[in-house]
Design goal:
The chain is of the alpha/beta class and 290 residues long. The chain is 35% helix and 31% strand.
Length: 290
């Protein structure tokens, strides 16, 4: 099934606090979206609207043109995997898998069993007695095996060790090839997960500051290093995200399209130009301005 998610002018207000502010975007099938932002930026609030956990104060969230909130058909197309408190849950993993099957028409039990074996998840143990990492593994298995057209993982790797996270990442890529869908991965492990993303959404203080395919975004960021006077001459009129100075040398991170005349000047002055990682861009685009 091919789906599209649209957010149109959505805002979310909690009493006096505006958690989300006039957000617009479109998500297309077959893409893995990295949703990144600092703590409290509004990531989980935004995802909860897509999953119809709550209704926006203003604006609309639609799946294939239909408003998602209180829309049973639309809601069955979304799986929202997030940190869950299982301390009062006495059922076993096996029982929870059976429960998921009843409420997810697209749930693939055979695939779930493959994942259980892959992640070495005990199925006859009470879910409340699993470690935090194994509870996260269980959540991930539900998300992957549900095979809903929109699958959301909100910091889903909580407690997983590095090898287990790598299995999770690899499985997302392989599953996307087998059953293309909209994946949304909310994370603060940007440098570890950036290779998974087709598109990046950066949210800061309740606003989307960037939504772009990752290759185009990374092409807009670069570093320049050279003598102070040469660097300052070249970056005049450009968007400088960060600058550092040591002795007579200056290094800056620049964001945006680079005019041809600037390219010529950089070559003429022999400035060192370098790539910038998504992690660096994220930090600089969301840093607090004094």
């Amino acid at each position: 099934m091919t789906v599209k998610v649209e957010a149109k002018n959505i805002s979310l207000v909690y009493r006096e606090f505006e958690a989300l502010k006039d957000i617009n975007f479109t998500l297309e099938n077959g893409r893995i979206y990295g949703l990144i932002g600092r703590n409290g930026a509004g990531k989980t609030s935004l995802l909860s609207l897509i999953a119809a956990y709550q209704q926006p104060t203003r604006g609309k969230v639609k799946i294939d043109g239909s408003i998602v909130f209180e829309n049973e058909e639309a809601m069955t197309q979304v799986t929202f995997v997030h940190k869950t408190d299982y301390k009062d849950e006495y059922g076993t993993v096996k029982q929870f898998i059976e429960f998921a099957m009843r409420y997810r028409p697209s749930f693939d039990l055979q695939y779930a069993e493959q994942l259980i074996s892959l992640f070495r998840l005990p199925t006859n143990k009470s879910i409340r007695k699993l470690s935090t990492g194994m509870q996260s593994v269980f959540n991930v298995i539900i998300g992957l095996a549900s095979r809903t057209p929109i699958t959301i993982f909100d910091e889903a790797y909580n407690g997983m060790d590095a090898p287990t996270r790598e299995i999770f990442y690899r499985e997302i890529l392989e599953e996307q090839a087998r059953h293309p869908r909209i994946f949304i991965l909310s994370t603060h492990l940007v440098s570890e997960m950036d290779y998974l993303f087709d598109d990046v959404i950066i949210i800061d203080q309740g606003k989307v500051v960037v939504q772009e395919d990752i290759d185009s975004l990374l092409q807009k960021g670069f570093s320049l290093t050279g003598s102070i006077s040469d660097v300052e001459e070249v970056v005049d009129g450009l968007v400088v995200l960060n600058e550092e100075q040591l002795g007579g040398t200056k290094s800056v991170i620049v964001y945006g399209e680079l005019p041809e005349e600037k390219v010529a000047t950089i070559k003429q002055k022999g400035l060192e130009i370098g790539n910038v990682t998504l992690h660096d861009l994220f930090i600089q685009l969301t840093k607090e301005v004094n």
